[in-house]
């Protein structure tokens, strides 16, 4: 399965949309909240990597293979540091729950430019496939959390 698992449009999405005890009220909002939370964790991980390895902030115009190898090497070194360092200032800094990393990620989480280089028919097929997959997750959340669809 290839594609981007987009959040539901027209539903609350960002962590800041759920202040205090006003948690998700529907399965669609629960999915969006989980999507936003996961995206936030991923952005914090990239924030730590970029802070530790500045080359990742502005990757030189190397071949795609070399760029991939640089990212893998940075992750391996980072993991080594994490395993062998009792105190990690970067993880303390980026380890705050619900921390938003400015300038990271697309401004619109439902942006579907992932499909820009595909044929119209193929991109529509993939979008329908991912929407169906997302609906399956939403239905599971509906049943597990007993939220309205």
From TrEMBL:
UniProt keyword annotations, A-Z: Hydrolase, Metal-binding, Nuclease, Nucleus
Domain of life: Eukaryota
Record domain DDE Tnp4: where: 19-79
UniProt signal peptide: none
One Gene Ontology molecular-function label: metal ion binding
InterPro entries: HARBI1-like, HARBI1_dom
Cofactor (UniProt): a divalent metal cation
One Gene Ontology CC term in the entry: nucleus
Subcellular location: Nucleus
Family to which this protein belongs: Belongs to the HARBI1 family.
PANTHER family, alphabetized: NUCLEASE HARBI1, PTHR22930
Protein name as it appears in the record: DDE Tnp4 domain-containing protein
Species the sequence originates in: Papaver nudicaule (Iceland poppy)
Lineage, top ranks: Eukaryota, Viridiplantae, Streptophyta, Embryophyta, Tracheophyta
């Amino acid at each position: 399965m290839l594609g981007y698992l987009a959040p539901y449009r027209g539903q609350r999405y960002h962590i800041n949309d759920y202040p205090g005890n006003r948690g998700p009220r529907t399965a669609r909002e629960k999915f969006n909240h989980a999507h936003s939370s996961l995206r936030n964790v991923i952005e914090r991980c990239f924030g730590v990597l970029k802070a530790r390895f500045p080359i990742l902030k502005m990757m030189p115009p190397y071949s795609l293979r070399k760029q991939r190898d640089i990212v893998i090497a940075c992750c391996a070194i980072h993991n080594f540091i994490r395993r062998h360092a009792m105190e990690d200032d970067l993880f303390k800094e980026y380890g705050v729950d619900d921390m938003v990393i400015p300038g990271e990620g697309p401004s619109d989480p439902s942006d579907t430019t992932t499909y820009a280089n595909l044929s119209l028919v193929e991109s529509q097929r993939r979008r329908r496939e991912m929407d169906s997959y997302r609906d399956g997750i939403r239905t599971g959340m509906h049943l597990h959390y007993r939220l309205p669809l």
